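Priority: medium. Attachment 1 of 2:
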């Protein structure tokens, strides 16, 4: 018989960051003992020895981040894996490294103390900038500092938190690395006392399908081991429920699971059928992927093509520019596996949140408005030609299209077309085959491009709308800033009007238009996008089946 005193029934509210319900005992994560520090550990040796210790720890963490990115890509997706690739690049930031050097070599601090001082100083600088994206990187730095601290003490960050039994995990907050390494077999749900719905941790929880509630404020540790009912949809956590409440909740969970299984079976039955609206209009359902590892999941979801192959991840995973052969083989792998289905490759979209340290670009006050995407490519033409040649060669193996990001003027398109023609002449002279009629398109992700859609349509075969950037550039609002989330949610109309204008312009020239940003996956907007004339919708593989069903319900 259980002689424990029953805790008081209590209903707690938070912010639901992923759907679903879960019931089970609470398990409070206590980092205090695991992270305790022996005072003697922070006593410095010579400055040279301390710098060597820190440098080795930084290299260890970068290697671990690479492994985390690979694990995330395989189990969750390429976009989520990018979180850890960005973290690795932060550890190569020269300003941060200079801060560490100053603390050790000039001030004689230990590696541990230099790490804390350098991160604190750098975080304060980022937090003071009038740039929500850069200010948000302070949370990433805190995660990285924890990982480097463990590496300094010979501990690995590549092992997940062991859960003693199937439970609802409670933590002050979780870093992205901790989240991806959680034991999924014992994790029923996730509750954090702090956190925001736009944090990297929340993004991972959604992608992993974990019922999660963040920012609940406080929970009494005395509830450790007590049964709780987590409802991420209602955004509540019921502590110490009655037996009747628990039974009813478990019946609901099982009912929802059964409905989900039936829904999944129905969606898979739709997977091989064309997406046709109620009025008989055919809509193409494509997938967004990062590389060849996601092709199988795209095909399993019924993708009729690849609407966005993010080629920059081939560059982010290397310490130097990839060769033409490396790029060609990567593209050829995707094209061959897609068969006669169209694959749209977006040319290098580096810069902003996807920095390539080996390019040696100057630091900018506002990277989102600086040297990025096509601007870098036109400034580094030989680098751009290497990619274009690889794309052209791969076009001989299947149905391929090339797409330019961040276009703001017809002059940019002409310059890119000239380089593409130059590559075609070179390959012809070398006796190499390619598709002479390669489809050539651009992304509409700036207001400038949308407003010049008719002039741009004269030069291309298709448009693809990147709604993520188009939204934030149109509204002058960072969509990842939690303070602006409601503003972005409530003011999509200007973006939709720009999409409609672009659709009219490209259709007048006999071309087609797709949408590959987050709006494509928002089922509330599907009917509106189709009414605006959108011909193709491209989403991450997990959303393909539900989008196909939604299209068949539209007029």
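Attachment 2 of 2:
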């Amino acid at each position: 018989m259980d002689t424990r005193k029953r805790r008081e029934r209590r209903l707690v509210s938070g912010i639901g960051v992923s759907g679903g319900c879960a019931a089970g005992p609470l398990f409070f994560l206590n980092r205090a003992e695991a992270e305790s520090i022996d005072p003697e550990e922070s006593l410095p040796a010579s400055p040279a020895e301390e710098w060597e210790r820190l440098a080795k720890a930084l290299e260890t963490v970068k290697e671990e981040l690479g492994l985390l990115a690979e694990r995330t890509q395989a189990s969750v997706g390429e976009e989520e894996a990018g979180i850890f690739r960005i973290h690795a690049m932060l550890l190569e930031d020269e300003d941060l490294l200079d801060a560490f050097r100053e603390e050790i070599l000039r001030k004689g601090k230990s590696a541990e103390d230099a790490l804390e001082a350098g991160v604190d100083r750098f975080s304060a600088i980022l937090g003071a900038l009038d740039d929500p994206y850069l200010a948000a990187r302070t949370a990433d730095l805190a995660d990285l500092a924890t990982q480097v601290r463990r590496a300094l003490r010979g501990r690995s960050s590549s092992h997940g938190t062991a859960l003693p039994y199937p439970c609802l995990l409670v933590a002050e907050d979780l870093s992205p690395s901790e989240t991806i390494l959680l034991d999924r077999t014992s994790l029923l749900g996730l509750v954090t006392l702090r956190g925001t719905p736009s944090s990297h941790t929340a993004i991972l929880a959604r992608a992993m399908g974990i019922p999660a509630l963040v920012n609940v404020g406080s929970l009494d540790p005395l509830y450790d081991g007590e049964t709780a009912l987590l409802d991420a949809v209602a955004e509540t956590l019921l502590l110490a429920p009655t037996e009747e409440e628990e039974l009813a909740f478990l019946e609901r969970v099982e009912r929802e699971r059964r409905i989900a299984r039936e829904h999944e079976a129905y969606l898979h039955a739709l997977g091989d059928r064309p997406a046709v609206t109620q009025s008989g209009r055919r809509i193409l359902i494509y997938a967004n992927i990062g590389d060849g590892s996601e092709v199988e999941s795209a095909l399993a979801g019924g993708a009729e093509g690849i609407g966005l192959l993010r080629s920059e991840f081939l560059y982010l995973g290397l310490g130097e520019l990839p060769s033409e052969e490396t790029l060609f083989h990567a593209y050829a792998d995707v094209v061959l596996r897609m068969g006669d289905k169209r694959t749209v490759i977006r040319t290098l979209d580096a810069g902003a949140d996807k920095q390539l340290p080996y390019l040696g670009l100057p630091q900018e006050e506002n990277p989102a408005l600086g040297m990025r995407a096509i601007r870098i490519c036109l400034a580094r033409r030989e680098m751009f030609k290497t990619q274009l040649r690889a794309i052209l060669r791969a076009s001989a193996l299947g149905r391929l299209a090339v797409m330019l990001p961040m276009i703001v003027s017809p002059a940019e398109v002409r310059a890119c077309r000239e380089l593409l023609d130059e590559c075609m002449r070179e390959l012809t002279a070398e006796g190499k085959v390619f598709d002479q009629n390669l489809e050539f398109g651009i992304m509409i992700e700036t207001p400038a491009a949308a407003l010049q859609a008719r002039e741009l349509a004269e030069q291309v075969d298709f448009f693809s709308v990147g709604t993520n950037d188009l939204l934030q550039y149109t509204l002058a609002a960072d969509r990842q800033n939690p303070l602006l989330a409601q503003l972005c949610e409530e003011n999509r109309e200007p973006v939709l009007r720009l999409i409609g204008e672009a659709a009219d312009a490209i259709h007048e020239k006999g071309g087609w238009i797709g949408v590959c940003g987050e709006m494509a996956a928002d089922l509330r907007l599907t009917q509106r996008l189709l009414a605006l004339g959108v011909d193709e919708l491209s989403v991450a593989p997990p959303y393909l089946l539900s989008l196909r069903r939604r299209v068949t319900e539209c007029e």
